Amino acid sequence: MPTNFTVVPVEARADGAGDEAAERTEAPGTPEGPEPVGHSPGDGSPRESVPFVNNVEMERESFFEGKNMALFEEEMDSNPMVSSLLNKLANYTNLSQGVVEHEQAEESRRRAAQTPRMGTFIGVYLPCLQNILGVILFLRLTWIVGAAGILESFLIVAVCCSCTLLTAISMSAIATNGVVPAGGSYYMISRSLGPEFGGAVGLCFYLGTTFAGAMYILGTIEIFLTYISPGAAIFQAETAADEAAAMLHNMRVYGTCTLALMAVVVFVGVKYVNKLALVFLACVVLSILAIYAGVIKTAFDPPDIPVCLLGNRTLARRGFDVCAKVHEGSNGSATTALWGLFCNGSQPSASCDEYFAQNNVSEMQAIPGVASGVFLENLWSAYADKGAYVEKKGVPAVPAPEESRDSRLPYVLSDITTYLTLLVGIYFPSVTGIMAGSNRSGDLKDAQKSIPTGTIMAIVTTSFIYLSCIVLFGACIEGVVLRDKFGEALQGNLVIGVLAWPSPWVIVIGSFFSTCGAGLQSLTGAPRLLQAIARDGIVPFLQVFGHGKANGEPTWALLLTALICETGVLIASLDSVAPILSMFFLMCYMFVNLACAVQTLLRTPNWRPRFKYYHWTLSFLGMSLCLALMFVCSWYYALFAMLVAGCIYKYIEYRGAEKEWGDGIRGLSLNAARYALLRVEHGPPHTKNWRPQVLVLLNLDEEQQVKHPRLLSFASQLKAGKGLTIVGSVLEGTYLDKHSEAQRAEENIRSLMGVERTKGFCQLVVSSNLRDGTSHLIQSAGLGAMKHNTVLMAWPGSWKQEDNPFSWKNFVDTVRDATAAQQALLVAKNVDLFPQNQERLGGGNIDVWWVVHDGGMLMLLPFLLRQHKVWRKCRMRIFTVAQEADNSIQMKRELQTFLYHLRISAEVEVVEMVENDISAFTYEKTLVMEQRSQMLKQMQLSKTEREREAQLIHDRNTASHAAAATKAQAPPTPDKVQMTWTREKLIAERCKNRDASVSGFKDLFSLKPDQSNVRRMHTAVKLNDVVLTKSQDAQLVLLNMPGPPRNRHGDENYMEFLEVLTEGLNRVLLVRGGGREVITIYS
C-alpha cells in the first residue's frame, strides 16, 4: 500500500557537519570507508550481499557530532539512523557473482545510475523466446508429428508446456519475493529449500545446462553435415549400413572442434557473445515467420516436391533421378537407374528384387497443402521399430516374403525404435529456457514486475507456436515425409525447410546460427552457475572453481564445463543426449515448484510475493507433473539423476558448510518438530521406547575450555547418534557480565561436539553459583517431551582438595536433584581413561555388578555401548551378590532365564559375601574419616595449616592401610586380624597403640565412630575387595550407585564411601536408576 513520507528539515549545525552529510547524500557512490569484506566460502555466513550493513566505525563519529539525537546515542551504537538505512537501500547494487572483482565501486555505481535498465520485452520476453525456441523445433518436431500423429504430438506438447507454465508461476512467486541475485534458479531453490537441496539441484541444473550446450553443438553439426555441406564429412561410408556409424564419427570430430572453438570465444570475451545474441534471436524469428509464410502459400500454391514410392515403401533419392522402372526414349523403352539398384543388370530380363518386381513405382507430392485433406491421415500415430520401412498407409502393395535386407537398396528406414515416452524425452528440451529472465534480474528496471509478465508471455507465445506448428505440419506434409527424419526422400533437404517460403535456405541458415548461438549461451551461463555454487562454499570440493581471471571470468569452471560437454558430444546422437538434459531440467523445475509449495504452506512472515496469481495446489501439480515426466521419459535416467542429486545432497549434509538462509526446509522442520512435540507430550514413553536421553554436565576451566572431553566421547558411544543429547554447562556470575564468555564457551563446546561427532544441543547457563545453575539445567533443559531422563557427569576428582571445598557439596546436591527429578544418573570415574571414538577395544569384558534393582539400567547400558564400534568386541558379564540366606545356584539359574527373556547375551556369576566381623582396618578408616571431617569443621586454621593438617591425616591413613596389609600377610592371630569391636576391645586397642601414636594426635581417637558409618564403610571395603578380585582387568565396570544420606551432615562421608567402593578400578560407571523400569521382556 502506498505510504506518504514527510521530510522535516533539521536545523543545520554550525560546525558544517550537515554539509558533509549533504555531500555524502549527493554522491552515494563515494565509499565512506572500506568496503565490507565478504565472508570466505564455508564460513557459515550467506554469500548474498545485505543492504542492512551497520558500518558503526565509519559513521559513529558523524552521528555523535550533533546533539539533536543524543537521546538515541546508545541505540546508534548498534542500529543505523533511518536516513543512513534508506541511503544504503537506495544504493543497493546487485552485481553478478562472476564480475564483482573487476568492477570498481565508484565507477560501477555511476555507470549503474547512467545506464538505462531493461524492460519486460527486451530483458525477459526476448531472452526466454530465444532460449525456448531452438534446435528441436527445426530438426525433430516434424519427425515427432509423423511418428506420434497430430493428437499424441499435441498431447506431448500440451503436457510439456503445462509443466513449464506451472513452473513459471511458482518461479514468479519466488522471484517476486525479494531480490534475486546472480544464480537464477539455483539462488531461488537454495534460499527457499536450504543449501543441501540448493546445492544438489543447482548442480543438476548446471549439468542440464552443460548437456544442453552439447545438444546444441550436435544440432549445429547435424545441420552442417546433413543439409549444408554433406561433402565435408571426414569419414565416408563404404556401404549404406555403415552410414550411421560414419555419421557418428563425423559428429564427434566436428563437435569436438566446434566445442573447442566456442570455448575459446567464451574465454576471450563474453561481451561478443552477448552482442551476437540479438543476431541469433533474429535468425529464430525469421525462420518461424518463413514457416508460417510457407504454410499460407501451400493453401493456394503447393510446392512441386515429388516423393518416390515403391508399392507403399518410401524410397530415398539416392543413386537415381527418375522415379520409374523404365522410361521411354527415342530408341524405345529403357531401364532407369532405379532398375539397376534393384536388379542385377540393366537388361529387362535381369533378375530383380521380388518386392520390386511385384509392385509399381509411383510419385506423390511431399507437401500437398493445407486444403489437401492429409490432416486426417496424419491424425494417428505410426510408431515403428528400428530398421522398419517408412510406409504410406492406404496404398496397395503386394507383400513380399521376409528376406535378408540388402543395405544397398534405397529405402527410407527408421533409425531408432519410436514410442510415446521416447518422444516426450526428446521433445522436452525444446520448452526449457524459462529461467533466462530470472537470471537477468539485476539488469531489469523492475524485476518483480518484469519476470512474471515476460516469462509467462514467452511461454504462452512459444506454446502457441509449437501447438500451431504441430497442426500445420500435420495438415500440410505427407506422413511418410514427416517420418523421414533426415529428408532422404527429399534429396537430403531439411523437411521443415522445403515447407518454408521463400527458400529452404532461410530455415537452414537460420537454424544453423540459432543453434550456434544457443550453444554459446549455454557455455557462457553454465560456468557462471558453477562459479556461483562454488563461491557459496556449500560444496567444499568445488571451491577451486570459484576462482577465475582477474576480471572475474570463471576460467576453471569453463574448463570443467567444456570437459563435461565433451562427454555429451562423444555420445554424438541428438536423440540420446536430449533425454539426459530433460532429466536434469525436470528435476530443477520440480524443486522450484516444491520450494513455492513449501513456502506457501508454511506461511512464513517473509513470504510476501508481489505476484499474487499462485497457489500451493498449482505448485504441487507442477511438481507432480515434473516427477511423472521424468519417469515417463526414461525411468533409468530418472533414477540416475535422482541418485546423483541424492549423493550431492548427502555430501553437502555431511561435509558441506553450515548455512542459515532462512530456507523453507528449516521452517518445515520446525513445523514438523512442533507437531511431533505436541503429539508426544502426553505421558511418559512406554518402556519399550525408553532410551537414555542424556544431559551431559561439563566442567569448564578458566579459558572456557572443556575439562573432560572424553565425557562427550562416552556420550556419543552410548547414544550412537540416537535419541536426545543435551550438553550443558554452568558459568558462575551474572549474565550481563559474562555473556561474551558464555558465547565463547558455547562455541568451544559446539566445536568439541563436532570433533567428537556428538549429535545434540548445547545449553549453557550463567548463574550466581554453580549449585543453582546445575539445578536449573536439570529442571529446565529440553522442551516438552524432548527432555532428558538421564544425567551424565564426571566424578569430581578434586573433591578432597582444600581449595575446592564446595566440589563435593555440588556433586551430592546434583545427585539429590537428579533423584528428586526421577532421572537416572551416570557418574564416570577416571573418565580421562575412557576410550576415544577412534579407538577400537580388541576384547575384554564389560562387568556389571548388580547389587540392587534399578529398573534395568545396568542391563541396558552395556547393550547400548556394544552397539558402538569402540565396545563391539567386548563381552558382557553380570555379577550379582548373594547373602548367606540366598540360594546361589537358584539365583544364577533365574538370572540366566531373565537375561534370555531380555534377549541379552552375557555371562552370569553369583558372588557370595559371607557375613563376618568388621575388620580393624575398616573401623580405623571410618574413625579417621569422621575425625578428619570433625577437625575441618571445628578448627579455624589458615590455609597452610589446613594443608599440613590434612597431609598428616593422609599419612596416618596410609600408615594404617599399610599396617592392615601387613597384618593380612602375617599368620592369623585372633586378636589383631579379625575382631568384633566392643567398647572394651576399643579401649584396649587404644591403650596398646597409644605410645606409637604421633604426639600431635594423641586425642585422635577420643571420639566414638558412628555405627552406621562403620557398617557403610564395611560394605564399601568388602564390596570393593570382591570387585577388585573379579573385575580389576575389565574394560569397564558398572556399579550400583548408593544414594546420598538423608542427613546432609554426612555428605562428606558419602563421598568417602564412594571413593572406597571404586578404589583400584580403572574405568568405573556408577549408575543410579530413575525410579522406573527401562527394560522389558515383552515384545
From TrEMBL:
One Pfam family this sequence matches? SLC12
What are its GO biological-process terms? Answer: cell volume homeostasis; chemical synaptic transmission; chloride ion homeostasis; potassium ion homeostasis; potassium ion import across plasma membrane
One MF term in the entry's GO annotations: protein kinase binding
Using the record's annotation, list all stretches that form the Amino acid permease/ SLC12A domain.
124-298, 426-695
Q: Where are the transmembrane segments?
A: 118-141, 153-176, 197-218, 253-270, 277-296, 416-436, 456-482, 494-520, 556-574, 580-602, 614-638
The source's superkingdom equals Eukaryota
Q: Where is the SLC12A transporter C-terminal domain?
A: 709-827, 829-1083
The record's Gene3D superfamilies line, in alphabetical order, gives: Amino acid/polyamine transporter I (1.20.1740.10)
Query: Which family is annotated?
Result: Belongs to the SLC12A transporter family. K/Cl co-transporter subfamily.
Query: What's the protein called, per UniProt?
Result: Solute carrier family 12 member 7
Gene name tied to this protein: SLC12A7
